[in-house]
Each structure stands twice: as C-alpha cells, then as structure tokens.
Amino acid sequence: MRRFLPLLLLTLLCTCDRAMESQIVKESDSQIVRESDSQAVGEADSQEGLPNILFILTDDQGYGDLSMMGNDSIETPNMDALLQTGAFFDHFYVSPVCAPTRASFLSGLYAPRTGAVFVTRRRETMDDGILTLPEYLRHAGYRTGLFGKWHNGATFPYHPAGQGFEEFLGFTLGHFNDYFEGELVNERDEIVPFVGDLTEILTDTASHFMQQESSQPFFCLLAYQAPHTPVQVSDKHWDRVNQRGLTPYNTGIYAMIESIDEQIGQLLDELEEAGKLENTLIVFATDNGPNGDRYRVGLKGTKGHVDEGGVRVPFGIKFPGEHPANGRKIVTPAAHIDLVPTVLDLVDLPIPEKLDGHSLLPLLQPKHNDTFNLNRYIYAFKQGYDFKPYPGSMRDRNFLYVLRGPDKHELYQLDKDPGQRTDIMATKQAFLAGLQARGRKMAETYAAFASTVARPDLVAPPIDLDAAPGPIRLLAHEGEPRGKTHFMDKYGWANDFFVDLGSDGAYWPVETEKARSYRVKVRYHLEGNTARTLVLRTDKGNDVSVALPPARTTQIPVADRVKRKEVYPRRWAEVEVSGLSISPGSTEISIASAGREGLWVKEITLE
Ligand SMILES: [Ca+2]
After folding, report:
1. What is the DSSP string of 505-529?
2. For the chain, N or C: smaller number of CB within 10 Å?
3. How many angstroms separate the alpha carbon of residue 301 from the centre of ligand 1?
4. 383 pLDDT band (50/70/90 cuts)?
5. What pLDDT score was predicted for residue 3?
6. What fold characterizes domain 388-453?
7. Tens digits of per-residue pLDDT, 170-203?
8. If you measure from the C-alpha of residue 513 to the centroid of ligand 1, how many angstroms do you get, rounded to a whole number?
9. CA-to-CA distance for 175 and 310, rounded, in angstroms?
C-alpha cells in the first residue's frame, strides 16, 4: 500500500520544471506501473548520450577483502582493476547489514525512513511508496533488470517488479541457502528451478540482459549472493585458495570472492566484445563489513557493527571512456545514500530535495583537488526488529562518534586513529580530553538526527493479497509463530520454518479489499505414523481443513565447506486444499493443528 509517496512526489514536483512537465508517478499495481512507465518512456527526452549503468553489488565482502588493500591471501585482479581505473572512494559507508544498505542504495534515504530496518520477518521490507533508482531511470528511458539478491520485500508490491525492475531473476530473501540447486523467482514471482553455479548463472543472465538489442540504455543491478553464507564454492576456486594456509571458513569466503572476481572479468570481456563497454558506467560496491573476523586493514568491527569495520566498504564508479575522474582516489567521505542523487545528476533528472544523499559528481570534476567537502555527517544505525538509535555512529572525515548504548558515548579521531584504539570520551590523556566537548556536541547532533529517521508506520507491513500478479507465497519467516510454535532457529532468518506447530499455531498479517477463494498449497514435514489435520483460518472466521499424511522429509544434500549456522534446505512434502475464503478487510491468515510436536511448516501458497 502507498504510504510514503506524497512527500517524495511533492518534493519532486517542486524542485524542477522538467518534473512538472512529466511527473514520475508511481502506482501500487505493478501492471499499471509497467504500462504508465512505458508511456513515460515514449514521452521522455532523447535518450541519446545516456550511458548504460551496471551496478555490481557483492554481499558481506569487507573493505579488506581485496588484494589492492594489501591482503596477500586473496587475488582479486578484476575487482582491483575496476576500482583502480575508475573513481575509487576510499571512505565510503553503508549500513551494518544487508537489507538497510540495499534500501539506501536504491532510495537515496537512510533505511529507517524506508521501513527497511532489519533483515528478516518482513522488517527488511522497503515501503512501495518509496521511489527507487530503477523507477527514476525508467522515467529517463532506461530498461531495468535485477539479477541476484533483492532483500527488500518478498511479496508484491514490495517485490523487485513492484519497485521498478522490469526483469528479475534471483531471490527476495536475506540469503539463498544453496549455491548449486534451488528455486529462484522471476519478475512475476514464478518459481524458476536451477541447477548449476549461482554466481555464474546470475552473471550469465545479467550478461544476456545487457546484450539484448534495444534502443534504450540499460540499468542492470547484478547483486551477487557471494560471499554470504552458506560457504559453498566450486572445487576450482576452493583448491586454489586452500593452498594459502587459512581457516576452512576464510578459505571458502575468499574462494567465493575469487569466483565473483573471475565472473566479473568474463562479464566485462563479453560487454567489450558486444561493443557495450564503451558506453557503460560501472558501479562496484559491497553491502556491509566482512561476515567474519579476518583481514580488514586494521578497522574495528565486522558485519553488524556500526564501527568502521562494519560499514566502511570499497566503492567505485568507472566512467566510460576517458573521463577525468577515472583513476582518481577520493578521500571525502561518501555513502550509499549518494548513489541515487549521483545517478540522477548524471542522467539529468531532478534530484528530490528530501533525499539524504548528495550528488558526488562535483567531486569528480577535472579541477577537483580534494578540498571539496560535502560538510556533513554520515550516519550508521544498527537495526533490529524495531528501530533504536543505539548502537549508532556518525562520522565526517576527521571524527567518529559512536552511541554504543543508551548513554554510552565514544569519540575517535578518525584521521589519526582509523582503527578506533583510543576512545577520546574515556581518555585521561590531557591533550585528547580537550576534544571531549566536540564529542558532546556530536552526541547532540546525532540524537537530533536519529530522532527524525524512524518511521514505525512503515515497518513490517502486512502482506498485500491484492497486489500479486499470480500465486502468493506466504513463507514461514514472513509470518509469526504463536505460543509454543517456534522457528528452527531462534530468530527466524530467511528460509526458516515453523517447528512444533500445534494448536497455538502461527499466522501471517495480511491486507485485502477483495473477496476471493484460494486453493492453498502447504509445504510441510510430519513425523510419526499418524496423519494430522491442519486448519487454515482467517480472522473473519472463514476456515478450511486439510489432512496431512505423515511425511518425514529429508535435507537436500549440500556442498557446504564448513558447517553452517542457518537452516538447511529440505525436500518438503506438499498437500493442496481448495476453498479458503478470504473476506475483504481480513487482517490475518493463521494455521494450527491439534497436537504439538513433529509438525513443521515451511510455507503456504495461495492460488
Ligand atoms: Ca550483506
């Protein structure tokens, strides 16, 4: 449902005459988006001169996970070349975890403003009223594709196809639990089974998309899942890295990064052969700090932390041709929120005033001599199920302020102490204690800003039954267990399932304005020798029952190099039942079964 649109649309309309002539209007129905946008494309100004844009985003690769960072345990020649022959931002910041970073890259806003405050249980969902980078670019005449990880909402209208991507092959969850076999989904949310190497499949699909004959420029987001866990990688890459004396976990992580590096090299070769590279701008970024304790150039913290190691990542923009910014190293701090305004600036679209980010193009002008300073603080919030201002951090080029707890303030002199060894707020060294007044001032600035970003009205929206173009998958980790029902893992990360589903049951919050009767497919596991009855019910009192025959399901064999913490994929049993009536205004679909132990439910699909 549309919640945030009026503010942004109004801003857009007020900031530029061109926007007055051709409004970027967002509809909640994905089909309408597609039709209206294609009309807008026809009316747009000439697309001549607009570059193609390829945005490569990796998952959980930290600042130190590149050979160019002095890490002699990894070989990343293609990533290094991309960053070093483009404009390399050496102080670039994202959020501590996946989904908020992606929401900021796509919206130009700090993630709490978009609703994407966490990574699972629908708290990764970006409100559909947020205008996204692909939506802006479609207005400028681009065709748009996402290949890989989305992680900002699994169901329509939050699905990538509801948020501006015309083509999509990937997964909407926080992580995919098998690199070699599984079920991806496409832009219609149809299941697309695959067998192969996920990193290669995503690269090939992106390559095919970019090479399609078209009069339109493209925007391609290639969002690799590697090196996110599970640690799975082909023998070729494992064997090479395995000679370097690392732990099995780090061997696997580096091998996964080298697998991406190889794919990037091949992809750029293919684009060059197709004559596309000379007019393609390439952005490279990672989405948070390293997913483990490994080399990170002395930075403190890892993925999930608001310290430098959790949020400072490699970022570069390689311009096509002989652009003066190529080959430059930029030290002015920049962030994920700057991508949208930078790209809008580049393609001559108006930049909404309410965005948190700024265009980085002025930094990239020929006369730039590194004195340009955006004169601002860049924030990072450690988020959970609900937004809290701590832990959080705020930095400029010289100082880092950290709010560690409700009243726990830290200050670091970032230019002299990038490893955060000396907390100025706690020091007894007189020459540093003089800076504590600065820390107190930064604390006030941080508190004032943090109080403005939370949008509890956008967090964890119900599942909109009216927006989907086809079947609606209600995944367990998008729902809520009740009473004694629980997830296999405590938190209910992506791919998890309801365990010991009994009479307390579990439910999914929904919204609908239509009356419909659904056929329901249930994916489950049931131990013992006796069938159980599963009751599906809405809060309006409609229900339907289905008998579940015993089904002791098995794990799908996986090629993990080290034991994983997340749940394993399974081959689930399936039953179907017709006649679940949903009334307008329903707010909940629940499942329950008399008895308790032994019944697990992975998902239900409404058709
Ligand atoms: Ca990540």
Report:
1. -EEEEEE-SS-EEEEEEEEEEE-SS
2. C
3. 14
4. confident
5. 43
6. Arylsulfatase, C-terminal domain (3.30.1120)
7. 999 999 999 999 999 999 999 999 999 999 999 9
8. 36
9. 19
How many residues can be counted in the chain?
Answer: 607
* pLDDT tens digits, one per residue of 65-97: 999 999 999 999 999 999 999 999 999 999 999
Q: Would strands 87-93 and 312-318 be described as parallel, antiparallel, or unpaired? A: antiparallel
| Overall average pLDDT of the 228-242 stretch | 98
Angle, CA 96 vertex, CA 94 and CA 102 arms, to 5°: 55
CA of 327 relative to ligand 1 center, distance in Å: 27
CA of 226 from ligand 1 middle (Å) equals 9
pLDDT digits (tens, 9 = 90+) for 468-523: 999 999 999 999 999 999 999 988 999 999 999 999 999 999 999 999 999 999 99
Q: How far is the CA of 216 from the centre of ligand 1 (A)?
A: 31
CATH number given to 463-606: 2.60.120.260
Q: Calculate how far, in angstroms, residue 561's C-alpha sits from the geometric centre of ligand 1.
A: 19
98 alpha carbon – ligand 1 mean position (Å): 4
CA–centroid distance, residue 59 to ligand 1 (Å): 4
Distance CA 139, CA 133 (A): 10
The domains of the chain are located at 5-22+53-363, 388-453, 463-606
